[in-house]
Structure to design on (849 residues):
């Protein structure tokens, strides 16, 4: 019986997480700040300050970027950062650093911060949906 | 010899002779080009990056047309994930098709792949593991493609740049390096590249390090007859904090042996005309000024046309006062000697990263009753620069007009810049009051209020500035990312009409932070002996960027993520080169989701806005074909992007076919066994790169097919 309760509780957590989106405060300000410092050193050379874009790498803000990730998951964005960036040093960012940079990208895309940090596992982040437009339209 | 045998021999000889005649005559009977050994458009072959060496991107086909474009189906596709150590999301390649084989580059190691043109079946693959040299290379990933050469007698070769800037020749049939070419089929293009260095107090031009030295190229070498012409490019603009770097150059090689035929330095050295445009000896230390996009050639005129980029440091020229020849210029050099014949500087003392980009277009047209050989150079400035391609003289007046001065310490902007009187701009060159967002009066008022915080002069060529109490930066558009970029433009050689896609919404805040200025100012550069990036302590580790501070610029405040300029955000423009007039201009691309779904625009009907981005297309008998630069998810179709066909007469969209992701490389088209194919590279966001080949279903194909060619 105990086992069944645990399984059910686990399922409930998964279900609750699956319904989360980028509008639910999924990272912390502190994490994004750390990510911003990493971004300046690792990413801004090509993607421009705060992801404004450069002539070789696309902008990480604005309509093109939000279209790329709209209705995908934060895990997809995290995977891009961790496995394909920065070119020449791919796969060298730690999970924690990749999560911090992901948090920074969420912040510059005007998603709200919250009480808990983004996890540094892709599977966990795949349960957070990337939704470009605010459900409350107050964006 | 006994008589019967002699008879047989005579008969055999006769048969052989007859066969020889048949073989020689056959190509002409079937209407093929004079020498069947060479590829030709008549055979349906797309044998150069731009379909030809004149930059047309034109193919004389009409099987796929306005009536059936919507019926296109995916014939095959080729995923590039496993061509390198990790998947790629930025495939910019355009394949070639010659004699039934597709040749392309792909993957994060820039592999070369040969495929069957009808089925996509893989024939061979080649790639080079260059280790650290590729890891620190300025131009990584799969590149934009490769080049093909044949002697017309069965010797066929594929020629391309590796990520680490080696020129490689492969046997087109096997994918093996051609050992007769240079050293085992490979030329180390870093050999001979120089940068300025102070040695015992004297400036010298010395060899760059072969591993760390910063140079490479994404483009395809240009093949003109038996000559290979090679480009040079460095890291992307705007990141430079060092006035020194490798110096740009163009070289030519014998296609058979790899012997270097000539070399042309993009920055004239001491004693050469133009060296005086680098004041205070700045030629010594300045780098870049490469030729990084595609080039063109006119073998009859014996000229190669080179679009040259800007020097280091992109947006600060205090270390290189003067006009800086041949920065941001179109230069014609002699095909045989590499000697400069003429040049035209598009932007003097470029401090915006304008560059000259995209293949120069070599068009033969009749203007004012006279047949003219012209060259039309597209640009990021929004101007199409049209010149006589033999003399370099402008076809229509290009006026030097006064432009604003710079107030950044040590900077001296050119007092004038060239403004073509014709043709009209193909995309915005500055943000005019009329260009400001006007979906609602509130949005417009907010945008105009935001703009007050900036230096907004409503003209092009406003220099970057250091933010102060009153102004946070200069309002620019285009510069780095607008107008036409590396995908280039196209033209119809039969009608003399120019076609291009262009970005119309790339607003840039021209600001350099105080920290950045401190790094780039002459005092600092001098103190560090003008060292190049690879001599800096941070090289290959973590690299800083001081270009403009943290985002969330006040420019975009209260606009809900909407662009500050009104649509169209991206356009297709056609210009009649016979008279320099605008033929049509239409928005390109679906309205972005961020605009269509914007809560600030709720209840409003927004007409098609087009999309920002840079993409290239091709021209056929009736169509201009180009894909969306952005994915969208409108209610009436699955999330993705569209490959669109425009009526080349009036710009009306006459068909569109779905792609799973945005166009990332220029499309091409070819014909084999009576079936026309279209290949386009797609990818980005969460979608890994692939080439998709579209064709009409067999049921839609005409019954009569042409002779297959092997």
């Amino acid at each position: 019986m105990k086992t069944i309760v645990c399984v059910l509780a686990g399922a409930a957590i998964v279900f609750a997480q699956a319904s989360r989106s980028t509008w639910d405060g999924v990272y912390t300000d502190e994490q994004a700040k750390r990510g911003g410092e990493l971004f300046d050193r690792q990413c801004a050379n090509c993607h421009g300050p705060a992801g404004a874009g450069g002539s070789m790498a696309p902008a990480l803000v604005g309509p093109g970027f939000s279209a790329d990730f709209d209705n995908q998951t934060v895990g997809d964005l995290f995977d891009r950062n961790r496995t394909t960036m920065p070119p020449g040093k791919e796969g060298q960012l730690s999970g924690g650093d990749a999560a911090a940079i992901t948090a920074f990208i969420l912040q510059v895309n005007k998603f709200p911060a919250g009480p808990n940090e983004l996890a540094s596992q892709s599977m966990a982040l795949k349960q957070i949906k990337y939704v470009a437009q605010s459900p409350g339209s107050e964006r | 010899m006994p008589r019967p045998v002699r008879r047989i021999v005579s008969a055999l000889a006769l048969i052989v002779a007859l066969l020889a005649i048949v073989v020689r005559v056959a190509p002409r009977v079937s209407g093929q080009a004079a020498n069947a050994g060479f590829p030709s458009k008549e055979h349906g072959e797309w044998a150069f990056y731009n379909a030809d060496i004149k930059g047309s991107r034109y193919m004389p086909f009409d099987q796929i047309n306005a009536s059936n474009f919507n019926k296109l189906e995916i014939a095959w596709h080729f995923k590039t994930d496993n061509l390198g150590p990790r998947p790629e999301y930025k495939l910019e390649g355009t394949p070639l098709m010659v004699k039934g084989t597709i040749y392309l580059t792909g993957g994060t190691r820039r592999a070369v792949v040969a495929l069957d043109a009808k089925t996509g079946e893989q024939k061979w693959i080649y790639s080079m593991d260059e280790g650290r040299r590729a890891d620190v290379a300025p131009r990584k990933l799969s590149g934009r493609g490769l080049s093909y050469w044949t002697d017309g007698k069965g010797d066929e070769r594929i020629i391309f740049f590796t990520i680490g800037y080696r020129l490689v020749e492969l046997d087109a049939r096997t994918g093996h390096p051609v050992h007769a070419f240079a050293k085992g089929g490979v030329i180390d293009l870093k050999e001979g590249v120089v940068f300025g260095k102070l040695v015992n107090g004297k400036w010298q031009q010395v060899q760059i390090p072969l591993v760390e030295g910063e140079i490479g190229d994404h483009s395809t070498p240009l093949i003109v007859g038996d000559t290979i012409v090679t480009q040079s490019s460095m890291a992307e603009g705007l990141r430079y904090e060092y006035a020194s770097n490798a110096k740009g150059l163009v070289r030519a090689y014998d296609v058979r042996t790899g012997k270097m035929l000539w070399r042309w330095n993009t920055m004239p050295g001491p004693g050469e005309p133009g060296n005086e445009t680098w004041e205070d000896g700045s030629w010594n230390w300045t780098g870049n000024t490469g030729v990084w996009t595609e080039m063109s050639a006119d073998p009859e005129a014996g000229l190669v046309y080179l679009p040259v980029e800007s020097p280091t440091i992109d947006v600060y020229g205090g270390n290189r006062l003067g006009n800086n020849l041949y920065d941001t210029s179109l230069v014609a050099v002699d095909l045989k000697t590499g000697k400069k014949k003429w040049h035209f500087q598009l932007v003097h003392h470029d401090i915006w990263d304008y560059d000259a980009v995209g293949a120069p277009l070599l068009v033969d047209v009749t203007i004012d009753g006279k047949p003219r050989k012209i060259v039309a150079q597209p640009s990021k400035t929004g101007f199409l620069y049209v010149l006589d391609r033999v003399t370099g003289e402008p076809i229509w007046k290009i006026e030097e007009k006064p432009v604003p001065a710079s107030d950044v310490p040590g900077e001296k902007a050119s007092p004038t810049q060239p403004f073509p009187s014709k043709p009209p701009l193909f995309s915005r060159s500055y943000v005019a009051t009329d260009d400001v967002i006007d979906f609602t009066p509130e949005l417009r008022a907010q945008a105009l209020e935001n703009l007050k915080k900036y230096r907004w002069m409503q003209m092009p060529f406003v220099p970057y500035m250091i933010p102060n109490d009153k102004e946070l930066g200069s309002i620019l558009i285009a510069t780095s990312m607008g107008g036409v970029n590396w995908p280039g433009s196209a033209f119809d050689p039969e009608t003399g009409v120019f076609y291009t896609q262009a970005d119309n919404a790339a607003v840039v805040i021209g600001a350099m932070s105080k920290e950045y200025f401190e790094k780039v100012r002459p005092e600092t550069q001098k103190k560090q002996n003008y060292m190049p990036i690879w001599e800096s302590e941070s090289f290959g580790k973590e690299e800083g960027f001081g270009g403009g501070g943290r985002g969330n610029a006040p420019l975009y405040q209260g606009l809900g993520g909407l662009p500050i300029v009104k649509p169209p955000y991206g356009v297709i423009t056609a210009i009649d080169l016979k008279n320099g007039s605008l033929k049509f201009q239409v928005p390109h691309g679906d309205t972005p989701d961020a605009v269509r779904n914007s809560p600030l625009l709720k209840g409003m009907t927004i007409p098609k806005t087009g999309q920002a981005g840079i993409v290239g297309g091709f021209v056929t008998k009736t169509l201009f074909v180009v894909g969306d630069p952005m994915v969208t998810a409108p209610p009436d179709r699955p999330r993705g992007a569209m490959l669109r066909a425009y009526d080349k007469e009036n710009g009306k969209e006459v068909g569109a076919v779905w792609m799973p992701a945005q166009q990332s490389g220029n499309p091409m088209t070819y014909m084999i066994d009576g079936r026309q194919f279209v290949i386009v590279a797609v990818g980005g966001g969460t979608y890994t790169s692939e080439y998709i080949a579209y064709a009409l279903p067999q049921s839609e194909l005409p019954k009569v097919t042409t002779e297959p060619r092997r």
User: Anything to note?
Assistant: The radius of gyration of chain A is 16 Å. Chain A is about 50% helix and 5% strand. Helices of chain A lie at 2-18, 29-42, 44-47, 63-69, 74-84, 95-108, 122-125.
